[in-house]
Amino acid sequence: MHDVTLSPAQCRAARGLLNWDINGLAAATGLTRKTISDFENGKAEPRPRTVRDILKAFDDAGVTFIGAGEDSPSGGPGVRLNHIPDSP
User: Fold this and answer.
1) Where are the alpha helices (DSSP H) in the chain?
2) For a FRET experiment, which of 9, 31, 56, 78 has its CA 20 to 30 Å from that of 67?
3) What is the CATH number of domain 8-81?
4) What are the per-10-residue average pLDDT scores of the chain (88 residues)?
C-alpha cells in the first residue's frame, strides 16, 4: 500500500465496491459508525491513524486507491477492486 490521500468519496466508493455498509467498515476497522459517517459526510477530518486503519481494511479486502493523474494525466482520484473478496 503506497502513500494515499483518502477522500470521503473514495471511502464511500470503496465500500460500494465491496458491498459494505458503514457497519461492515466499522467491523473491519474497529472504528465507530459515527467516526466513519462523520468522515464520509465531511463533518470531521479523521486522524492519521483512522485513515491508516480504513486504508488497511480496504487493502486487505482487495481495494486499491488511485491518486489523481495516476492512471492518466487527466484522471481524478478513484478506487479499483483487485479481486472479488471471499463471501462471509
Assistant:
1) 8-18, 22-29, 33-40, 48-60
2) 31
3) 1.10.260.40
4) 77 96 97 98 95 96 83 72 66
